[in-house]
Amino acid sequence: MNLYLSSFLTFFKVGAFTLGGGYAMIPLIEREVVDKKKWLNRQEFIDQIAVAQSVPGVFAVNMAIFVGYKLRGVKGSIATTLGTILPSFIIILLIALFFFSFKDNEWVIKIFKGIRPAVVALIAIPVLTTARTAGITYKTVMIPIVTALLIWLLNVSPVYIVIVAALAGVLWQRHKAPKGGKKSITKQGKGSRVPLRDKTLSFWGLAVPLPLWGLGKLFFSFFKIGLFGFGGGYAMLSLIQHEVVESHGWLTSAEFTDLVAISQMTPGPIGINTATFVGYTAGGILGSAVATIALVLPSFAIMLTICKLFERFRANSYIEAAFRALRLVVVGLIASAALMLLTPDNFVDYTSVIILVVAFFATWKFKLNPILTIIAAGVFGVFFY
Question: Residue 25's pLDDT is what?
Fold first, then answer.
């Protein structure tokens, strides 16, 4: 089989049958590209995970780009990227086509009243798991706390926080470096919704909003999210929420929470699922394509550059210092996404609080599958609302 087609189908299969976001894709990708296909050895795969976690963008897409470039350069990266994003794009687009026709149904309302508190619990769990790997100590614990509070209480854009954190990490490393010493650059080798509707056109038999200025705003918003979205899909949620709820009003807070729930229950990376859904809400099918492409484009360009320079500059002390600072901020970004969902729309009474607590401990302590947690919360909502 042609290697381009083989790599595309491999990542299409991973994207189509993986629930739980990008990190849940790791064992499937490892089985396919290391154990079965032998495209990477295990050490290369571990290096790939480290790089994919350290740069902005959707984690699973970053991994796909790395593998594709290793196989067939830029064209290989395009094949693996398309394979990763197409399943979730198609599934979420189909859901979006029918979601708004049923969202006012009495039973659907009850289901999502139960699901919304559970979603907050599921977002809170990665705060704890990410904190363990971010190297947080009693000296640095205030960094994620301040990050979360700045976004939650003062509505500071996460983009600015990411930039400041990276610069602070570099400056701290410069301060620590011996005066008069050389820079540590090690070369290791070469190598209420405000819709965008002004007018419509017919697209595949559907009415699709197409004001060019609106699509431009949509593209720029998700391009920013892709460019500054460190830490994978959950960390991106605060940036996405800031853009689509706070800045542009494309979704309400309740609709955004419903979207997160849908994204967690469907295959594929949560960032891609969210971009596809929001894009459709704001600009129809064309909007879905624009938002998804915009989200992936920055990480695609960055990862291709890194693939070429990875071996030469991966031991650069300043780059490593910037990423150490960003890992601390990522914990705060995820926490702020959970805090910003603590709204009256999502917590209508004490029953919502009970659902939150039960969902949190069932998933975190007893390792209940998040999909089962969401389903159980929806059933709970039907009976108690």
Answer: 67
Q: How far apart are CA 38 and CA 32, in angstroms?
A: 8
Task: Phi first, then psi: give them for residue 199, nearest 5 degrees.
Answer: -155, 165
φ/ψ (deg, to 5) at 207: -80, 120
pLDDT tens by residue, 250-302: 888 888 888 888 877 777 787 888 889 888 888 888 889 999 999 999 989 98
Q: Quote the DSSP letter at residue 203.
A: E
- Are 238 and 330 contacting, i.e. CB atoms less than 8 angstroms apart? no
pLDDT at 195 over 50: no
Q: Report which of residues 212 and 143 the model is more confident about.
A: 143
In whole angstroms, what is the distance from residue 36 CA to residue 351 CA? 48
DSSP state for residue 34 in the 8-state scheme: I
State the chain's maximal CA–CA distance in angstroms: 70
CA-based nearest residue to 10, from 99, 53, 96, 72: 72
Query: 306-309 contacts: CB < 8 A, separation 24 or more?
Result: 306/51, 306/55, 307/65, 307/66, 307/69, 307/70, 307/77, 308/191, 309/191
3-state class of 44 per DSSP?
Answer: helix
Q: Exposed, middle or buried: residue 97 (CB in 10 Å: 0-12, 13-18, 19+)?
A: middle
CA 35 to the chain's CA centroid = 27
> Residue 235: in which H helix or E strand, if any?
helix 232-241
Count CA atoms within 13 Å of residue 327 on its CB side. 22
- Residue 243 is given by DSSP the state I
> Coil, strand, or helix at residue 208?
strand
- Quick: pLDDT tens for 294-345: 999 998 998 888 887 765 666 678 877 877 787 788 788 778 878 877 888 7
Q: Give dist(CA 196, CA 247) in Å, integer.
A: 13
Give CA–CA dist 111/301, Å, rounded.
Answer: 40
Q: Which of 173-177, 240-244, 300-304, 380-384 has the lowest average pLDDT? A: 173-177
On whether the pTM is more than 0.85, the answer is: no
Q: Rounded to whole angstroms, how far apart are CA atoms 126 and 129? A: 5
